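note to self: dont lose this again. the chain is below, predicted strucutre after it. 135 aa total, dont forget to put it in the shared folder this time
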Amino acid sequence: MPPAPVSITVVFDGDCGVCQRLAQVAADRDFARRLRFIAYQRADLAALSPGLTREMAARAVYVAEPDGTRWHGARAVFEIMRRMPGLWAWAGRIGALPPISLLAEPFYRLVARHRTRISRWLGLTQCRLDTSHRP
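---
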């Protein structure tokens, strides 16, 4: 029997409609159950990833590996994609390469900075991530 896949924890903004929607999309495609989502507003960040603060998590998505490795911003998004099936995984592998993730970071920051406005424009302000079906 193959070993169980190592899951990563995705720390996102639980008050952001765009963030919630994207987390739900990723969770729905995570057939291997390699992603665990938690809103930073409800997380024990110190226990999850020592040194991660609420201020940091309010500015960007974070991914924490069980071994303590942590990514944020565009690189975190690509790490999430790497754990999804099919073309998502390939795009994530390519995007996680340092030159690509560094080039994507300014775009990520722009979207993150305006995520509340974008959520409103898309009508996602009332969206909530349902994690009741997740381990």
